[in-house]
Amino acid sequence: MALVVVGALLFLAGAALYVLPGPGFPVLVLGLAALTIGFFMLTALRRR
User: Residue 36's CB: how many other CB atoms inside 10 A?
Assistant: First the structure.
């Protein structure tokens, strides 16, 4: 659950930095990756 929250925050921060001038793309990609992995981990844990 914590990885989903961190991924969502990183994704939102990366999206804001992507719109504003700055290096937002790496943060956007990291946030999206953490969010996706977090969702996969949550679904894998709920199946047990």
Answer: 14
DSSP 22: S
Look up residue 36 and give its DSSP letter.
H
Helix (H, G, I), strand (E, B) or coil at 37: helix
Tokens found for residue 46:
């709920």
pLDDT value of residue 48? 64
Closest CA to 8 of 33, 26, 25: 33
Indicate if the pLDDT at residue 29 is higher than 70.
yes
Kindly state the DSSP code that residue 19 receives in the 8-state scheme. Answer: H
Cα dist. 32→18, 22, 45, 47, 48 in Å? 13, 18, 20, 23, 25
Q: 47 burial class (0-12, 13-18, 19+ CB within 10 angstroms)?
A: exposed
